[in-house]
Amino acid sequence: MFYIALHSTNESNVDLGEIAEKKKIPKHFLSKILQMLVKHKLLLSMRGPSGGFRLSKSPEEISLLEIVEIIDGLEIFNQCGIEHNACDPANPCPIHDEYSAHRECVYELFKSKTLEGFIEEFETGKSVSNLDGPKNQIENSDDL
Question: What is the pTM of this model?
Fold first, then answer.
């Protein structure tokens, strides 16, 4: 989604093959994920010579939580930290209290972080990514 947000516009789409090649993701696997995102109306899919994918709404309207929910579901925010079941205050696991607090923080982070926020941080150099983005590319990896 971040790659598509950086490389697509209202007039141009990003090709499945391009994403698969740049991100080293098997094309068939990536296609299934992108179709899930199309089905849930986060992406638009176009066929033909100028086909591909682009966001269906603006990057500031798409939260990381929406993406996670579509691809993996939100069960991770309800599961026990060590036993993969639903422990609770009445029947806590050994890390229940500490894990619950962190899990809630991560949930709020994913809920508040949007694709627009990722783009801004990437473009201003506040964060880096291995994407072949249009701005702030690292010229020489020896400088790291």
Answer: 0.79
